[in-house]
Design a protein that fits this description.
binds 3,4-dihydroxybenzoic acid; 10 helices; 8-stranded mixed sheet; alpha/beta; 279 residues; globular; two-stranded antiparallel ribbon; binds fe (iii) ion
């Protein structure tokens, strides 16, 4: 059987990708953040996943307002890197795992989650930056990647509770897959940030710390955080945090927190990193 060997939460700030791509990680602005990544990178190299299921959101690159799937599962052999207006990031192609992805699709849909199955999709910073955060700059990504895109861009996004239940269903699918793949689930986006309007620049480190504590130790309580609370406390883009609930739902109710770090400043976002293993 496939095995879920752990989970990662990380922000997906585009400027972090630029800092890596342009060799700026040692510069004074960036060095303190990148100094916090070795425990994550050492952990993931150690667990050596065959596949990462990366829960992320597309930022109007693969999908436009014409088509907005709530939950889109990438079943393709490979996923091209999106050009978000500054050229494609110079990162390796993302290689999928169609067999496990179709198993996930079948298992989730028969488990009553109405997934959109996507056979062709470009992936943006929401997916590529977390890979860079975890793996640095390899010639090829060290694992296959199954993208799971969640709509958090166009109202209404799914609830945190729905996301958590989807995570639990993903776990049932992993546990029923007749392969010996080692799987890591990523939840990406967040922590608090707001990129627009009067509260642009909002960061709420206190609420973020409370969110992470609740997510780790009392995930059922985290499922009850309303959209209004995310918006009020974590800013308009803080709603990305519902994707961390999918990652958490895939894990056991009891987890070990292997590593946590947060950092400011990195662009406009309270930058968070979390590593969990099943207890
Ligand atoms: C930033 C953060 C995001 O999550 C995003 O999608 C775009 C920009 C930022 O902090 O700059
Ligand atoms: Fe984002």
């Amino acid at each position: 059987m496939a095995e879920l060997v752990g989970a990662v939460g990380t922000s997906h700030i585009p400027a972090v990708g630029v800092a890596i791509d342009k060799g700026r990680t040692e510069e004074p602005y960036w060095a303190p953040y990148f100094a916090k990544l070795p425990p994550l990178r050492e952990w993931i190299a150690g667990v050596s996943p065959d596949v990462c299921i990366v829960v992320y959101n597309d930022h109007a690159n693969a999908f436009s307002l014409e088509i907005i799937p709530t939950f889109a599962l990438g079943t393709a052999e490979r996923f091209a890197i999106a050009d978000e207006g500054f050229g494609r990031r110079p990162v390796p192609q993302v290689i999928g795992h169609p067999e496990l992805a179709w198993h996930l699709g079948e298992s989730l849909i028969l488990d009553e989650f109405d997934m959109t199955l996507v056979q062709e999709m470009e992936v943006d910073h929401g997916l590529t930056v977390p890979l860079s955060v975890a793996f640095g700059q390899p010639a090829a990504w060290p694992c296959k990647v199954i993208p799971l895109a969640v709509n958090v861009v166009q109202y209404p996004p799914p609830t945190g509770n729905r996301c958590y239940r989807l995570g639990q269903a993903i776990r049932r699918a992993i546990d029923s897959y007749p392969g010996d793949e080692r799987v890591v689930v990523f939840g990406t986006g967040g922590l608090s940030h707001q990129l627009q309007a009067q509260r642009a620049g909002l960061i709420n480190a206190e609420w973020d710390a409370h969110f992470l504590d609740t997510l780790v130790h009392d995930p059922e309580a985290a499922t009850r955080i309303t959209h209004l609370e995310y918006l009020r406390e974590a800013g308009s883009e803080g709603i990305e945090l519902v994707m961390w609930l999918i990652m958490r739902g895939a894990m056991n109710p009891q987890v070990k927190e292997i590593y946590r770090a947060t950092h400011v400043p990195t662009s406009n976002t309270h930058n968070g990193v979390l590593v969990l293993e099943n207890a």
